[in-house]
Structure formats: C-alpha cells, structure tokens
Amino acid sequence: MNLPPKVKLVDVGPRDGLQNEKLPVPASVKIELVHRLQDAGLTEIEVTSYVSPKWVPQMADNAEVLAGIRRKAGVRYSVLTPNMQGLEAAMAPAPELWPDEIVVFGAASEAFSQRNINCSIAESIERFRPVVVAARANNIYVRGAISCSVGCPYEGKIAPERVELVARLMKDIGVQHIGVADTIGVGTPLKVKRAMEAALRHYDLNDVSGHFHDTYGQALANTLICLQMGVWQFDTSSAGLGGCPYAKGATGNVATEDVVYLLHGMGIATGIDLDKLIDAGKFISDFLDRKPNSRAATALLNKRAG
Questions:
Q1: Would the pTM count as exceeding 0.85?
Q2: Measured between alpha carbons, how far is 248 from 125 in angstroms, rounded to an integer?
C-alpha cells in the first residue's frame, strides 16, 4: 500500500463540532478545549466562525474566543469566513489576534447551493473571490471545502464531475487548499475515491484533505482509501463532536481519537498524544453531559477505569 509516513489532522471540534449545540457553550470552555487540543499535539485547529449570530448563535463569541487563546508556536488557528463581513470582523483587532487561516466553502450540489444560499455553485464561489484576495494580501492562508462531495440531502448522489467543477472554480479564485467533504456521511470508499480523484485534477496531493462524517459508519473506511491514495491531511473532531442539521440522525464528524488510533496502529506518525487527546475529548463531553462519541476513547477510558 502507498501509505504516507505521516498525517496532519485539523481538529474542527471547537467550530464545526460545537456550532450546532443548542445550549450555549461559554467562550472559556471553547478556549480550554483549544488549549487541550494543542497540548495534545494538534497543530491545526479550527477555532470558530465569523458568521451572523442570528444564524449561528453558538459562534457569537468568535472574537472573544480567538483573542483568548494562548497561541502556541507551530500551531495554525483557522476560522470560517463565508463573506467579506466575516473576514473584516476576523481582521478587526490587532494583527497578532488575526487567524492564521480562513476557510471558505462551496457545495458540489446545485440543489444544496440554491436551498441554502439561493444561488448557483458558480455564483456562490465567485462571492468568495474578494475574500480570498483580501486574505492572501494580508498573508492569511486560504483553505476551501467542497461540501456534499458524494451525496446531497436534496438531490441524492453527486457526480465526481461536480466536485471537479468546484475544485476548478476554487483554484481559479486563489484558494490554496481544498477539502473534499462528505457532509452528510453517505459516502463509501469507492465514491469517496472518485470524488478525491476529481479534486486532484486541479490540486496537488499536498493541497487536498478529506472531511468525513460517520453517519453510516463509513468514515474510517473512507479515510483508509484516501490514505492509500497518498492523501495525508484530514479534518476530524475531538470526541466526534458535531452533527449535520440536514441529515436526520447524522452522528457528525469522525472522531479525532478514532482516526489517531487507526493511524498509530498502522505505524503512521501524527505527533499527537492519544491519552491527552482522549482527556480533551472527555473534558468537552463532560461539559456537554454526554459520553465521547468515539469508539477508541470509550474503549481506552473503560480500560483506564479497570
């Protein structure tokens, strides 16, 4: 197998994982989660999003969270900025408080794009052009995500050609890295492989990543087939935080703990301390008053308890 010797994980728990929580999570708890993740060895953490608090009230404390983080050398802190208003808000404080990276996203589904932002795929991505230009002019790295890469809650299966279209459009506006996201977790390995191959027609292997939800229990299998392709960057979420509001019963992002257990078991380096990672996931799970949504964490916590 053509496996990469090392893998970089982006923990999206503080943003993607918490954004749909109905009860408010205090900024201090979000900041503590970020600190625990970076102390466990995570070097890429998606911290918050600059979106309207009317639509995502959980992220209304974005500036407080970003300003409150004890920044660690070698760690990249990213935020979601879907428009110029979001980017301007993220860049409002002093430069030392700016994010290191912003994230923009477009859907590979025309129906999803129309239903959610009332415009076509091409129009949605063109809206990001000034955001990308402004971010890069200020030395902020730009990562893009292609949502609904293999399936859509409105139109079902998504052809790889749609993924290629979004990847090309993202490349055209200057997005530096692209993530292939199975937003509702319906993907299986061959479908994910075809979607990733489509993105690789426009992006280098070092500039792509996988983002898999585990709704049907396929996230680790989808991760494995991408590893076999040489893909070495993935989004994961501590304690399996997060769900998808568009897929009833969706269990959310694949747990960082499960992916780390898989990788370490295959001899692939991550730089992550699994025990400290499990502690971070337990911390946020305890606050949310639920068990970690991670098989590896559950097994190892049970083993600790004897």
A1: yes
A2: 27
**Catalytic one among 148, 152, 226, 244?**
244
244 is catalytic: yes
Each residue's pLDDT tens digit, 203-230:
999 999 999 999 999 999 999 999 999 9
Q: Which residues contact 33 (CB under 8 A, 6 or more apart)?
A: 13, 14, 238, 280, 283, 284
- Close Cβ partners of 54 (under 8 Å, ≥ 6 residues apart): none
> Which stretches of 40-187 are DSSP H helices?
62-68, 84-90, 110-117, 121-126, 129-137, 160-172
Distance in angstroms (rounded) separating the CA atoms of residues 187 and 197:
14
**Bridge partner residues of 212 (DSSP):** 182
DSSP state of 206: G
Cα separation of 152 and 244, whole Å? Answer: 12
